[in-house]
Description:
- Chain A is mostly helical.
- Chain A has 6 helices and no strands.
- Chain A has one domain: Four Helix Bundle (Hemerythrin (Met), subunit A) (Up-down Bundle), CATH 1.20.120.
- Chain A has helices at residues 13-48, 50-58, 62-87, 91-122, 137-173, 183-207.
- In chain A, α5 packs antiparallel against α6 (183-207).
- The longest helix of chain A is centred in the C-terminal third of the chain and has 37 residues, at 137-173.
- The termini of chain A are far apart.
- The model of chain A is unreliable at 1-7 (pLDDT under 50).
- The longest helix of chain B is centred in the first third of the chain and has 36 residues, at 64-99.
- Chain B has a single domain, classed as Up-down Bundle (Cytochrome C Oxidase, Chain A).
- Chain B is mainly α.
- The chains are: A mainly alpha, B mainly alpha.
- Chains A and B meet through α1 and α5 of A and α6, α7 and α8 of B.
Amino acid sequence: MPPEAVTEHWGSEGARRQAAYLGMWVFIATEVLLFAGLFTAYGVYRSVYPEVFRAAQLTMDVGLGTLNTFLLVTSSIVVALAVHAVREDRPGLGGALLLAAALLGVVFLGVKGVEYAHHVREGGLPGDAYRFTEVPRVGASLFFTLYYLLTGFHALHVTVGVSVLTVLGVRSASGTFGSAYATPVELGGMYWHLVDVIWLFVYPILYLS
Amino acid sequence: MSPPAAESYLTDGRTVWSWLTTHDHKRIGVMFLGLTLFFFFVGGLFALALRIELLTPGRTIMGHLAYNRMFTLHGVTMVWLFMIPAIPSAFGNFLVPLMIGARDVAFPRLNLASVYLYVLGASIALWGMFEGGADTGWTFYTPYSTTTGTAVLPVLVGVFIIGFSTILTGLNFIATVHTLRAPGLTWMKLPLFVWAIYGTSIIQVLATPVLGMVLLLVALERVVGAGIFDPARGGDPLLFQHLFWFYSHPAVYIMVLPSMGVISEAVCAFSRKNAFSYRMIVYSTLGIAFVGFFTWGHHMFASGQSTFGSGAFGAMSMLVAIFTAIKIFSWLGTLYRGSIAIESPLIYTLGFMFFLFFGGMIGVAYATTSLNLHWHDTYSVVAHFHFIMVGATVMAFLAALHYWFPKMSGRCFPAKLANGAAVLIIFGFIATFVPQFLLGNLGMPRRYADYPPHFQSLHVASTAGASLLAFGFLAIAGYLAWSLRHGAVAGANPWGSDGFEWRSASPPPTHNFSTPPEYPTGPHEYASEEVQHAA
Lengths: 209, 535
């Protein structure tokens, strides 16, 4: 046994990469189940108040929702390209792409903020604060509660993702990553794809009817 | 040129700072052990206060609100701060890497973070306890938990944070077992304790996030009146019960599966035999982990769910008994004609098997809707889940504490004293909870501070049992603390066990092994003359 191996696990860099990947997949599973509680609540109350939920969906700004979907899907493609660039030993390009994806995430949050401002003006607020006159209160206040929880929790994940992508982008641009060591970029990319996929479930159930 | 290696993980840096910043899984395990023991003590004090209040009908030492707070804190402390983390976080952290021949867990920094999350969550919950304390019971049933004026919020937030500590620990174990097994250690050579921790980890990472979300929803309900669980606002309190028990019933297996792992190890070590039907123990572990997710509705037989739903959940619940029975038969098969050494871990093991069998068989009766409705929310249920959760978890915890004490500290403890304490504890448990089965069958409801006088004799018997338990625990604390300094030096393998963890020194050096261990045989293979003789 060479002495330097004593400070490491028995396995190689490959084994560590495998552990990191597995850890990320398990983490993604826990994230999906975290949202599963909210999706369950949505399904239950949609079956209890079908008309009210449809009416509430019609008041959503489909245009802004679709714009946000477009932004997130684009950013996911950009992140995939960034991972590819880093693996191809072009960390500068990879870093630039990661920062571009982070920027798209920031724009997403901005659009979300505009939407929230609309709701606040109209009184489409959760629970007790609900004052929106277009849809009757019973059931609709639940729709808006779940709307804020789902989109708010998702926005929290976007915020975390933007920070992760920014740090990875800066470190990649300074040449930390490359074909020999791309694991953090790959894991960050996986996380961003998760955020994207969750939105692809949130968007149709809240905006499209 | 590296500095000379320290003798053991205990002497590798002696400052408090070296412990607080350690990435060594063994030190993290020891820290978790200390923390969980502390909360076991706190929860035990609450339990004793409850038992003293119930000694006489009417007011004995506290009013009704204080009683409600007391049983809430007892439940919260015992469930989330002791039983769920005790074996996986303390013993799992210490032993899993040793058993699979790894130098550490897959993510050591994440492991340290889980200690701090636990401390943070526990502190917030404890702070809530002193700021008035919740009076909801550990189940936080809505709509009561969303309307009561007591400090529910800090307890919810505390448990939410502790949940993340649990998730990180489980995630770490899954990655560790998958990727860091020493060369030659195949899945079917894994020690049974590792299998048990692995099964537990799967439940932890899949169930805990749902609990986190439902606690967050209750918190929001209290803060902004979200209305999800409030019938007055169009919500449904039963949704809370569904989501809560989707976590909390599997959580019972988070407590019991690691216990079963400890028992499997102890049974092999103290009967000097290879595990009888190793594969069946493994498969039944995974079976319990799987079926555990489809049993939550048996908590809701009295909620008005459909008859078909109750029947289906009842049948699924009974399946758990089959997997458990496989394990009990395997342990008995291992003990049969073994070269049995009556040491304290084995005494606790026998106690565990009694409680698991007795409590489990009653559990099958509870899974029957008609019987369940008779016993619903009575002391019978309290006695049943104490038999399973406390009888099993605490017995296995004490077995683990005694079995691995020489491994962790390098010292032995006085064996006769330990055997005496073990017998005292087992009889204390029986004396505490058998009267509660009878009380419940007579109709004494749970969570009541007061009762009609004709229940008093059984309550006195139960409190007497609880006092026996308290004496037993104090005795254990006393002789183990004494042994830390004055016990005989253990040597690498004081029990003569064939478990993989005993291949390193006791206490182990910082990186567990100097050369990669080899695994020519499976776990617990006692190829010694004793086994030949027994066969």
